[in-house]
């Protein structure tokens, strides 16, 4: 499956995060990341100290978009799923995401399926009303749940209106990485929307390189600073994926 923001490009799409705390930090990271030619940039706005000002967030998004035509994913990662502590409560966070959908030119927004269903529906509606794509995500930094739970969460995300379903989990052993890949393929076959998955941590790095072969269409690589454990520098990640695809072209 393809994502409309990446028409004409071949999956997997490499996404690099912005994690700056100030406007200057973020814009400096943008300059660095652009040089690495990612397919997607994720602004992890939970790192941003100015998150309490909607005007400041909107203005910074437009400055990022002025610098590059690379599609932008806007994310305020929940502290419960690996994000930074922020000053906004969940209702205020949802209101900010709604304003971002209405007032900016971001292409995609991310929100966690574990949040209250009414909030998830509000974010999905704002995204769709304003022609943004919505990633509904699930992150577990402690373990890799059993396959049934991962499948159930993925199906729930699709049912709630996800354009893209994402799940990132922490392996406790190598077998968890291989199991994650297998369940990714099963979910990709079962859903009507694209899937993004990754096994985190050092031993999970394999999933970031070959996840595409199991149906995962986005992989996250370090641009300036990592936003999750196990991320590989974007340049090395691109090279590893290219070599893998050349060696096993029948998987594409």
From TrEMBL:
Molecular function (Gene Ontology), one example: 3-dehydroquinate dehydratase activity
Top-level taxonomic group: Bacteria
Keyword Lyase among record annotations: yes
Gene3D superfamilies noted in UniProt: Aldolase class I
Pfam families: DHquinase_I (PF01487)
Keyword Iron-sulfur in record: no
InterPro entries: Aldolase_TIM, DHquinase_I, Type-I_3-dehydroquinase
Entry EC number(s): 4.2.1.10
Amino-acid positions noted as binding 3-dehydroquinate in the UniProt annotation, renumbered to this chain: 42-44, 77, 208, 227, 231
Positions of the catalytic residues: 139 (proton donor/acceptor), 166 (schiff-base intermediate with substrate)
Pathway(s) annotated for this protein in UniProt: Metabolic intermediate biosynthesis; chorismate biosynthesis; chorismate from D-erythrose 4-phosphate and phosphoenolpyruvate: step 3/7
Record's function text: Involved in the third step of the chorismate pathway, which leads to the biosynthesis of aromatic amino acids. Catalyzes the cis-dehydration of 3-dehydroquinate (DHQ) and introduces the first double bond of the aromatic ring to yield 3-dehydroshikimate.
Record's subunit section: Homodimer.
Name of this chain's protein: 3-dehydroquinate dehydratase
